[in-house]
Write a structure and sequence with these properties.
α3 (about 85-95) runs parallel beside α5. The chain has 2 domains: about 1-60; about 65-325, Divalent-metal-dependent TIM barrel enzymes (TIM Barrel). The protein contains 11 helices and 8 strands. It has helices at about 1-5, 10-60, 85-95, 110, 115-125, 145-160, 180-200, 215-225, 245-255, 280-290, 310-325; strands at about 70-75, 100-105, 125-135, 165-170, 205, 230-235, 260-265, 300. By secondary structure, it is an alpha/beta fold.
């Protein structure tokens, strides 16, 4: 075809015609290339958008409301119960309120019926998320715990409950000691308790209950000195009033070790115990916890002196859901 079209032309004419054909071919190629690039870009954009939508949908599908009932642990509902509930009545109360777990902490009379309560809870499919252990400077030492403390360990072993043991030191446990002496004494006690807990498949967690051992900085020093054990932190808003200025800094330091955050209504000058939503600081404090990526569990107090835990728990849950609605 080309040869037929060029028959009878001079060499110069043939050259010009061939040049024009090449130019047209180049222009066609350029247009085709541009169109191809546009198509490819569009395909890539659509694929990226599809990936983004899928990722967003997956993220939304896996989002869980942090303050759902099963992520809340009723706490301080035994020793301060104005109704003096029996173990069976307490387990029923927890179940009737829609909770699936609670933390057990009582006085000596409650430790006497602790085995009965743990077994009842198990029967009713209520998890005992933690057990409280309070150390007295005059009665609790490594290798020599007071009878009540010993009975807690014995009951846990007998029932076979594998749970957290929330350890609170009396604020005067380290009185008149230097920083080095206090740390040494604390490490010795927590090492002893951790070793005992390990034998019954339980874990020790440090509970801020005021004084030297309630300071998050000191708690972290204890944990780091005992890296061979898995030790956590139970952070309580109602024992944090003296540390509010360093709250966010402490929170970031504690984050890797947080096992539970017990919530409370908060005002700088107290009162110490306040229903959630009745203070002016707790919303911002709770949001700061969420901002660290911590997702729970959260403790809900049932404790106001002379109060009924059933009523107090309801008030706290309602206050929490008002501050953080499940939209």
């Amino acid at each position: 075809m080309v040869e037929a079209g060029m028959k009878g032309l001079t060499i110069l004419q043939v050259f010009k015609k061939t040049k024009r054909i090449f130019k047209l071919t180049k222009e066609v190629k350029t247009k085709v290339l541009k169109k191809t690039i546009m198509i490819v870009r569009k395909v890539i954009f659509n694929l990226l958008m599809l990936c983004f939508v899928n990722a967003f949908a997956q993220d939304m599908s896996t989002f869980e409301y942090p303050f759902r009932q099963e992520n809340l642990i009723p706490w301080s509902i035994v020793a301060f119960d104005s109704q003096e509930r029996s173990p069976a009545e307490r387990v029923k109360m927890v179940k009737d309120l829609g909770f699936s777990q609670y933390a057990f902490g009582g006085r000596e009379k409650h430790i006497k019926t602790m085995e009965q309560e743990l077994r009842l809870a198990k029967k009713e499919h209520i998890k005992i998320s933690a057990v409280w252990l309070y150390l007295n400077p005059a009665k609790d030492a490594p290798g020599q715990l007071k009878t009540m403390s010993e009975n807690i360990f014995k009951t846990l072993e007998k029932v076979g409950l594998q749970t957290e043991i929330w350890v609170g030191f009396a604020p005067n446990y380290f009185v008149n000691l230097t920083q080095e002496e206090a740390l040494k004494k604390a490490v010795e006690m927590i090492a002893y308790l951790s070793n005992r807990a390990q034998k019954i498949n339980c874990k020790i967690a440090l509970y801020n209950h005021g004084g030297w051992p309630g300071n998050p900085v000191n708690q972290l020093k204890i944990i780091k000195a005992l890296a061979q054990y898995e030790i956590g932190i139970i952070y309580n808003f109602h024992h944090a009033h003296l540390d509010l200025e360093a709250y966010n800094e402490n929170l970031n330091l504690m984050r890797p070790y947080l096992w539970c955050v017990n919530l409370n209504g908060m005002r700088k000058d107290g009162p110490k115990i306040l229903s959630i939503g009745k203070g002016d600081l707790e919303k911002e404090m709770i949001q700061s916890v969420l901002n660290t990526g911590y997702k729970g569990p959260f403790g809900i107090l049932g404790h106001v002196k002379g109060g009924d835990p059933a009523i107090i728990l309801k008030e706290n849950v309602e206050g929490l859901h008002t501050l953080f609605p499940n939209d």
